């Protein structure tokens, strides 16, 4: 319908995240049609107490709680879907203020864009999205007022907070209205606090300014580039990384290279995990000496053959909280280093190694990243004295 404009807002809810994990995890419920209507009625009452003009607008809500990564995505699919549904609800009729909510039927919401993913790990913060629609002369000044008013008096009423608990089956520690700009600002502040401001800049470009290309660099020298369609990154194996200009000043002795590469890998993985959680496509470029395998889930590097000692056929290079970083395999007098590129890649590369070794291989788990200090390359574990 021509002439309607929208303002995207949300309810940010701090919950008890322990119930979403553990032996018997329970995700937030999805209320049916009646429950969603009751929820929106409570929220509209709260909003009317803050903004008298909102009674001249339409409110649209999905009866679901989301992780913030499900809202902050390129094209904002949840909000875009709500706007489409609200707009189409008028048909050929003229605009009239209304409350439009969408509940679940047998656990499914009416549009796939509105269905929360059960694969997304939930944290303390959950969000309930709403769209305000109406005449531009009403919505534009209302939107400006919301940017400041929500900060001052955006807390949900006790009635609405109890309704959230009842309809979604969660415990509410704190809940308040926010604008979409507020949610973006909060994510930036969180990432900047932990030293990931370049990661925020990537997210901001991909989500809010996709036509602008951007290149950022992590603390360990990792390079990520937003192309307008995807983020391109360069994965470095241990052998490649340890012989770069960034690493040449790090002594090879006392395992210092292993510690530094662990830090590099941890930050690299954090970038990729966060980008993918926000629905951003990531392409990992490999060095000339590496090849992608397992449908892109892992990479294989051909390394110089070891020339001494009795060595394990398979060596799992690992590091603390990261788990397995690489797996070295010896076959036909050659060494191949396997690296997972995504979480599922570890199982895929293990299966690929098993397929290539006819007999049960000798597998070493040294509990660290083993490397030759002279060449600064991964090495298999020695079986001497075993």
Tell me briefly what this model is.
The protein is α+β, with helices and mostly antiparallel strands and 386 residues long. It is 33% helix and 24% strand.
Structural class: alpha+beta
Identify the strand order in the major beta sheet.
10-11-14-13-12-15
| Apparent shape | elongated
Instruction: Give me the strand/helix succession.
Output: EHEHHEEHHEHHEEEHHEEEEEEHEEE
The tally of beta strands, per DSSP, is: 17
Question: What number of structural domains do the residues give?
Answer: 2
Portion of residues in helices? 25-40%
Distance between the termini: 76 Å
Number of helices: 10
**Radius of gyration from the CA trace?**
26 Å
Instruction: Profile the largest sheet.
Output: 6 strands, mixed
Low-pLDDT stretches: none
Beta-strand portion reads 15-25%
- Quote the average pLDDT: 94
List keywords for this structure.
2 domains, 6-stranded mixed sheet, elongated, 5-stranded mixed sheet, alpha+beta, 10 helices, single chain, 386 residues, 33% helix
Please give a structural write-up.
The protein has 386 residues and is α+β, with helices and mostly antiparallel strands. The chain has 2 domains: 179 residues, no CATH class; 193 residues, no CATH class. It contains 10 helices and 17 strands. The chain has a 6-stranded mixed beta sheet. The chain has a 5-stranded mixed beta sheet with strand order 3-2-4-1-5, sandwiched between helices. A hairpin with a 5-residue loop joins strand 6 and strand 7. Helix 1 packs antiparallel against helix 5. The model has no long low-confidence stretch (mean pLDDT 94).
């Amino acid at each position: 319908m021509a002439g309607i404009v929208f303002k995207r807002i949300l309810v940010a809810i701090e919950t008890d995240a322990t119930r979403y994990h553990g032996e018997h995890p329970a995700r937030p419920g999805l209320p049916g049609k009646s429950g969603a209507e009751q929820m929106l009625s409570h929220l509209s009452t709260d909003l009317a107490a803050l903004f008298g003009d909102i009674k001249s607008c339409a409110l649209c809500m999905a009866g679901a709680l989301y992780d913030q990564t499900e809202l902050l995505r390129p094209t904002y699919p949840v909000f875009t879907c709500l706007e489409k549904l609200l707009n189409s609800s008028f048909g050929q009729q003229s605009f009239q203020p209304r409350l439009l909510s969408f509940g679940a039927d047998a656990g499914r919401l009416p549009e796939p864009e509105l269905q929360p993913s059960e694969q997304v790990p939930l944290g303390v913060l959950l969000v309930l999205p709403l769209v305000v629609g109406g005449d531009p002369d009403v919505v534009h000044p209302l939107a400006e007022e919301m940017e400041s008013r929500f900060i001052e008096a955006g807390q949900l009423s006790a009635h609405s907070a109890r309704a959230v608990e009842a309809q979604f089956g969660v415990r509410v520690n704190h809940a308040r209205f926010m604008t979409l700009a507020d949610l973006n600002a909060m994510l930036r502040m969180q990432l900047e606090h932990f030293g990931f401001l370049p990661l925020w800049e990537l997210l901001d470009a991909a989500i809010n300014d996709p036509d602008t290309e951007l290149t950022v660099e992590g603390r360990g020298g990792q390079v990520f580039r937003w192309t307008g369609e995807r983020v391109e990154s360069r994965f470095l194996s241990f052998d490649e990384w340890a012989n770069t200009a960034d690493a040449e000043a790090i002594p090879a002795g006392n395992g210092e290279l292993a510690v530094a590469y662990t830090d590099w890998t941890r930050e690299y993985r954090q970038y990729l995990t966060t980008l993918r959680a926000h629905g951003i496509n990531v392409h990992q470029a490999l060095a000339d000496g590496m090849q992608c395998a397992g449908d892109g889930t892992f990479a294989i590097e051909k390394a110089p053959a070891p020339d001494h000692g009795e060595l394990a056929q398979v060596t799992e290079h690992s590091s603390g909280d990261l788990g397995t970083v690489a797996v070295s395999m010896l076959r036909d007098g050659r060494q191949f280093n396997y690296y997972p590129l995504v979480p599922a890649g570890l199982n895929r590369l293990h299966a690929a190694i098993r397929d290539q070794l006819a007999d049960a291989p000798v597998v070493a788990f040294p509990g660290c990243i083993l490397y030759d200090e002279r060449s600064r390359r991964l090495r298999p574990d020695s079986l001497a004295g075993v």
